[in-house]
Amino acid sequence: MRAGNLDRLIEIQRRTTGLDLYGTVTDTWTTYATMRAQLLKNATDDREGASGHTTDAVLTFRSYYFASLSLNDRLLYEGQPYEIKGITEIGRRVGIDVVCERIGLSV
Asked: What is the torsional sign of CA 64, 66, 70, 74?
């Protein structure tokens, strides 16, 4: 993997819990790591579902190996949140491919 190909900036976010002003437990997303990545694939998929017509944006990123990344995390790219759908290790802890789908995109 060449460092010059890692031309995108992504943020890895983790769900954290906290209290609001009224003492109610709330879930928030906190940036856990900021890293460089290469955008491998950018695809959209139109489909009909129970909630009507939706358009899903699916991105695949390649980056250096990040041991604590899990499917419970989410990715932030260009200000848009993406749910992580799959993580594939490249080599022996050399890199990772992360497949993610945009959250809240509908037509």
From this structure: negative
> Any idea what DSSP says for residue 50?
T
Tokens of 70: 């899990």
User: Distance (Å, rounded) from C-alpha 35 to C-alpha 58?
Assistant: 19
Buried b / exposed e over 37-71, threshold 16 CB at 10 Å, is bbeeeeeeeeeeeeeeeeeeeebbbbbeebeebee
- The answer for 2, left when phi > 0, alpha when psi is -120 to 50, beta otherwise, is beta
| pTM: predicted TM-score of the whole model, two decimal places | 0.78
Q: Which helix (H) or strand (E) holds 49?
A: strand 25-49
Q: pLDDT > 70: what percent of the chain? A: 84
Contact 58, 101 (CB under 8 A): yes
